[in-house]
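Late entry, nicotinamide-adenine-dinucleotide complex.
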Amino acid sequence: MADTERIFDTDRRIRLGIWGLGRGLSFFRTCEALNLDVVAGCDYNRHMRDRFHEAQPSALVTDDAERFLAGDFDAVLLATFCPAHADDARRCLAAGKHVLSEVTAFHTLAEGVALVEAVERSGRVYNLAENYPFSAANMWLARRWQEGLFGDLMYAEYEYVHECRSLCYTYIDGEPIQPGNQVHSWRSWLNFHYYNTHSLGPVMHITGLRPTRVVALPSSPGLAGYLMGALQGMGGAAPSLINLSNGAVMRNLMGATTNDTHQQRLWGTLGSAEQVDGQLRLRLGASGNGPRHVVKPAWDALGELAARTGHGGGDFWTLYYFARQILDGRPAPFDVYRAADCTIPGIQAYRSSLHGGAPMPVPDLRQPAERDACRHDTFAQPRFDDRAGLFPGIAGNELTEQFSLTMRDLIRGVTAYRAWRDWRQVAAELDQPARLGEFADALQSELPRLAEVVPTARRLMAAYPGTPGARVLGEMLALADDVDLAGTAFAADLAAERQRLALPSASA
Ligand SMILES: NC(=O)c1ccc[n+]([C@@H]2O[C@H](COP(=O)([O-])OP(=O)(O)OC[C@H]3O[C@@H](n4cnc5c(N)ncnc54)[C@H](O)[C@@H]3O)[C@@H](O)[C@H]2O)c1
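Prediction complete; structure with ligand written out below:
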């Protein structure tokens, strides 16, 4: 299908405003073909507004949410801070707009109830933009699952393991947080259990089941450079086990670890499926040792268009279902009730982890009694003070305001050092020994920047000992064995080591 072909059988257009112009901007490419005209954008952040203005010069652009919501448009793509989505969605609904909300839908159960009731009162369309169910493989599995190919779900393991440590210190586009003595509004502290929908969402969509109960044992080890410990913040592993409405169990694994993985495995009573390293493999034949083969799920014509947009097609489909529901009323997969089903297990998993892994129910907000029981449940994790928590009690100054840029570049440089250092230890067993040269190149290209940021990090640590800012800088430096990465001696040693190992030089 050509990009210009009609997707919906109507000329009716939907006027769309985007609130939050970081992630919000990535939907742009798909809008036009889906009868969506982007006519307004809102962001506190000047550089986000500038990017939006460049992409859509005729649209209203403002930092003022009131002014934005008063604009003449029908629907909002809501991509503001994650824990603010419920309140922001309610403001949009109150302004008469349909809402496509980024994940997750809400941060507390009480907010969930308020959101569900606001949607019910409004008569507007509310969808959650959970996009991971809508890859070619997951959509194919959903179709086959509903046809009965796999039988009833027995067990599933889906993962969203994503170490995005530097996003604690930058915006989504990699620009350091400003002012530089502050950190990201929520990525600096949100426990990974809360960010659970990219792994649970696909299982819900494929099987049609809803979660009913969750347990999560606390897991305390965490990565260096995170502002809160793994039990509270984002820098650890966050596995939970979830009971689904047919009695099956799924393991929902999120986290920031040393291995980003998105493996996905489903066991049904008649057959199984697994997606490992981008391959979809089935075992069919209703037995543990039945024939096992790779399948290649084909997109339909619309799917091919989807595949050319973001997140493996997922962003296309969330927009498509949203526009379709506004245009002809056909329900989208993640309405506000499914959004709640998908969001609540994250909140309850975190709660379970604080109670030694005690089972927690997943209330069904469709049911009046269960809804009432959640109405005043404002349980939430503690937050890091993103504005003043790095150097408490110390007013911004020339040195502290270098923190976010320093930390961003230190993370990049130190992890490049670590990759070189650790791969060198197993170089003899490396299947392609020449790869070691790439790790040396990567480190070498970081050295000029390290020569600047390591001394700044040391100055900050000396000036403000005992602060969270000094601690995370110190953790990153410790990852580099406290080797002086900024010194000329280190650069000379690296060059000598390359020569000894006969690794070609980057400039050769
Ligand atoms: N589905 C996915 O694949 C995916 C990928 C990335 C992000 N997300 C979600 O999208 C949302 C946005 O993420 P992001 O990566 O852009 O990071 P972010 O949280 O840094 O971006 C939010 C943006 O909204 C702006 N903003 C927040 N509140 C505002 C307000 N009241 N008025 C004006 N501007 C406001 C901020 O300045 C910022 O630019 C998050 O909730 C995240 O979970 C989803």
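The pocket of nicotinamide-adenine-dinucleotide is lined by residues 20-23, 42-45, 48, 63, 65, 79-82, 84, 102-103, 131, 171-172, 311 (CB under 6 Å). Will revisit in the morning.
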